[in-house]
Amino acid sequence: MSEQMIALEESWKAALAPEFSSPYMQQLKDFLLVQKRSGKRIFPRGSEYFRALDLTPLAKVKVIILGQDPYHGLGQAHGLCFSVRPGVRIPPSLVNIYKEMETDLGIKPPRHGFLEHWARQGVLLLNSVLTVEEAQAASHQGKGWERFTDAVIGKVNEECECVVFMLWGSYAQRKAAFVDTYRHLVLKAPHPSPLSAHNGFFGCRHFSKANAFLQSHGRVPIDWELPANPQDA
């Protein structure tokens, strides 16, 4: 994936160089090329595979929110977990995230689902798998992305201090099970999906807990209130 690596934010480019030179990443690149040549539509676009890393340099990571796969509908995915492009209907899980944010912090839900404002402040919105075929959920699982994003989480765990890990659902909790809880804050709750949000996601107060932890360690808290106009993110 040399062409994507060249464009990658410099701190991540250096930290993840061994991953990009590994055989599994070449195999992943070959898989994606075959998929595209066969006429399959892949989301997000190639320039946005690593958008989460580009917006949140390694040294600036304060919070990690882990997702699983990109949205597989046309026009939705743009490289940040739970986030959708401006003008796209807000997905149900993000609606529930906004509900909890309002209960926790009193922030009125925005009318869009574009989360770059969070990412630019140090919230790494990382999916476990960074690509998907249109209308085919989980179609790129097991192709190598999970190993790559494990390395991303590992770098944050090792090289950053006082990071908040928001782990929503059993998948995210398993993926980040190795995080050093003496150096970082690990917050766990059910997934915000409509199927599970009422089982403990609502009322988890992760947003205020995250900011309290950051402030207690001398870090600037996250402004969770999204701009009314997503273009101001």
TrEMBL record:
Keywords (A to Z) from UniProt: Cytoplasm, DNA damage, DNA repair, Hydrolase
Active site: D69 (proton acceptor)
Transmembrane segments: none
GO biological process, any: base-excision repair, AP site formation via deaminated base removal
SUPFAM superfamilies with a match to the protein in the record: Uracil-DNA glycosylase-like
InterPro entries, alphabetized: UDG_fam1 (IPR002043), Ura-DNA_Glyclase_AS (IPR018085), Uracil-DNA_glycosylase-like (IPR005122), Uracil-DNA_glycosylase-like_sf (IPR036895)
Uracil-DNA glycosylase-like domain mapped to chain residues: 54-214
Protein's name according to its UniProt entry: Uracil-DNA glycosylase
EC nos: 3.2.2.27
Free-text function comment from the UniProt entry: Excises uracil residues from the DNA which can arise as a result of misincorporation of dUMP residues by DNA polymerase or due to deamination of cytosine.
Molecular function as annotated in GO: uracil DNA N-glycosylase activity
Enzyme superclass (EC): hydrolase
Listed PROSITE patterns: U_DNA_GLYCOSYLASE
Recorded catalytic activity of this chain's protein: Hydrolyzes single-stranded DNA or mismatched double-stranded DNA and polynucleotides, releasing free uracil
Protein family (similarity comment): Belongs to the uracil-DNA glycosylase (UDG) superfamily. UNG family.
Gene Ontology CC entries for this record: cytoplasm
Subcellular location: Cytoplasm
PANTHER family assigned to the protein according to its UniProt record, in alphabetical order: URACIL-DNA GLYCOSYLASE (PTHR11264:SF0)
One Pfam family it belongs to: UDG
Main localization of the protein described in the UniProt heading: cytoplasm
